[in-house]
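Dear V.,

Thank you for sending over the compound details. I've combined the ligand you provided, zinc ion, with the protein sequence from our construct and run the structure prediction for the complex. I'm sharing the raw inputs here so there's no ambiguity about protonation or stereochemistry in the SMILES, which I know was a concern on your side last time.
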Amino acid sequence: METITHNLIAVFIQILCFLYFIFPWNIIFTIMFAFLSHIIVDALSFITYHTPNSMKEDKFWLIWHYIIYALSMFSIVLFVIPYWLSILFANIIDLWDWFTLRPLQKKIKHKNPDSKWGDKYYMHKIVDWVREKLFYWLPNRIYKKSGILIEISIIIVFAIILGLLNVSLFID
Ligand SMILES: [Zn+2]
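Below is the predicted structure of the protein with zinc ion bound, written out as structure tokens.
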């Protein structure tokens, strides 16, 4: 799903872990659950509007992504202190796959178009596996524009929960 969704859930996880576990378990569980949350949340992303490739010629796709990228950036700025640990681990799979492996692969394929290097290092393969095992029964809505409503609902629910938890006051 989108970065803001991962971030809100990550902040929620860190708050709970620091509330209920003592050092060093609060840190260990924050890392573990934040990482796992990305897998679960992404495994569910196919019930939201999530086209596999960018559709820059499609106005709806473009506007939605402008908004959601801006909100994602905002959520990082807002929460990075003090929630950088959970935010980092809740996004590490994307940081690796989309911002490290894919650009590397592009470079290699530029020189050698037949290269298959890197294909097996994609961490979203774990996501696909979880989706097939656990969520195969859910409808596929990746091209349904109304799917953004599901993602927006999740964002609103977690924003409210964080508000109720007094997120801004929480610094351990
Ligand atoms: Zn992802």
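A first observation: The CA atoms of residues 10 and 86 lie 5 Å apart.

Warm regards,
I. M.
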